[in-house]
Specification:
The complex is a heterodimer.
Chain A: H1 2-29, H2 43-52, H3 59-71, H4 86-121, H5 125-140, H6 143-157, H7 172-201, H8 204-211, H9 216-228, H10 230-234, H11 236-253, H12 260-269, H13 272-300
Helix pairs in contact in A: 1-13, 4-7, 4-11, 5-7, 6-7, 6-11, 7-9, 7-11, 8-9, 11-12, 11-13, 12-13
Chain B: H1 12-22, H2 24-46, H3 80-116, H4 118-132, H5 136-144, H6 152-179, H7 182-189, H8 194-231, H9 242-251, H10 258-285
Helix pairs in contact in B: 1-10, 2-3, 2-10, 3-4, 3-6, 3-8, 3-10, 4-6, 5-6, 6-8, 7-8, 8-9, 8-10, 9-10
The chains are: A mainly alpha, B mainly alpha.
Amino acid sequence: MLNLALRRIGGILLTLLVIISVSFAIIRLAPGGPFDQEQALSAPVRANLERAYGLDRPLGVQYVRYLGALAHGDFGPSLRQPDFSVSELIAQGLPLSATLGLAAILVAALSGICAGLAAALWRSRGADLSLAALTALCIALPSFVIGPLLALVFGVKLHWLPVAGWQDHSARYLVLPVVTLALPVAAYLARLTRASLLEVLGAPFVRSARARGLGAARVLWRHALPPALLPVVSYLGPAVAFIITGSLVVESVFGLPGTGRYLVQGAIDRDYPLVMGMVIVYGALTLLFNLCADLVCGWLDPRTRHE
Amino acid sequence: MSEQVRILPRCGWGEAKWRLLGNRLTALALLLILLIALLALLGPLVSPWGYDTLDWQHLAGPPSLTARHWFGTDRLGRDLFVRTLDGVRLSLAISLIASIMSLLIGVTFGAIAGLAGGRLDGWMMRCVDVLYSLPYLFIVIILTTLFSRGSLAALLVALAAVGWLTTARIVRALTLALRRREFIEAARATGLSGPAILLRHVVPNLLGPVAVYATLIVPQMILFETFLSFLGLGVQEPHASLGSLIYGGAQEMESAPWMLLVPALFLVVLLLCLNLIGDGLRDAFDPRER
């Protein structure tokens, strides 16, 4: 197990290196630069700026320097917000974004799994149909439609919750964003849980557990649930990627000062170190959650355990 | 002497067609999509306004028949009926082209990997895995920076670049199953080269399953395109995409909710219908259902 985990972590580091190299190459090939503004800078000023940030060196040298700084945990300075380093910008926004993402995952997992379990255990035509319709709707609706619609209904019309913003660190401001992020994931999880539990409940080993005279609750918790949750857990990795993507939209819709805006604005402004920093942070997070999902799967399913 | 008995075809497209149309929900979705497409093509011709005409008499005006702004206007007095339908047209066109591009890449890549097998297959699929493990948005955002802002080429390349991954996986799995079949072996024995086997024997056999998957890729592409346009990385002013219209509507929803509701409604109906059609097709072709 430990050996496997170490090997996987090595794989993750290698993948990260590939990601860093590829995005470094692409973003430098892109036309335009961080110092293109409405009013063109004079040539000497521009040259000085480029020298100050080391942008006048050959690309290979810049790449090696960047990797060297990165190894020391230094993401470099932001080119468009000169008073801040990329690490400072990320440190400002990440706590809020992480809170938002974690809350969304928890809410989605709890509500989705419970709904799926209920639908699998108490089957009726009406419940099946309404769950199918509801989940189809939630999955088809993109977050940039759900978000504004929720804000319109609960914020503008009913005045239950604030429409947007982030004041006094009040959790009230996070309710709508978390629901927006969680809804599609919850819907998908509900479907997955229902389908996989129904399949497991029909399996021979569940029948034989019942035949041995075990109670319904014990059969469910000890025998049926762990294998039924396997596909649900493996979806955790993609779900994190989905939620990170969604958080870009949700932070923009609800005006939350998280890290999402850095990626888009950085790409538009050609703020090279900022975009690279965001790609590395988000990429590492996604890979890490994929690893966690794999490890939990190994723990749930004895067949995938390696000696 | 012979009495004509109508027999439902038992295999292939014939049966699939019956199953598809027999599914009332799918048929309804198909009808709705056709209606929307027709409306998107003809609607802007009927309206007196253009997509960038400014009407100073009606700034952020609600839907009204007398002003001939059937869906209302935005803050600059541009007609939302025309802009929304224009957006639908643009979104549909972009996503169709991007779907075709990503299918072409995906089928070629997957078929080559599956047919080649061995180390080449391993490396090719490793690339797909790495790309797969990233949130697609990174790739897309970084790719859009490769072109000047708002160019359609950038959008298409970015969309195709993320769309081909799943296709490649599916096609590779199908090709692996085909590879061991006798007719491929026979083709090899007659001395046919690799590319010729690929084109003449592998690809035709992949068409059915890929066609089904293709209907599910279109709503995906619409979703990506509107998402990018929402973030301001896709279609740029003065043109409208459903995504940029929804972004504009979200800014004004307190004073002019129709600016949000109209494009949102169109997008939701479009996505739901396309998903339903894809699901219906999959069910119709799924051998387990027979």
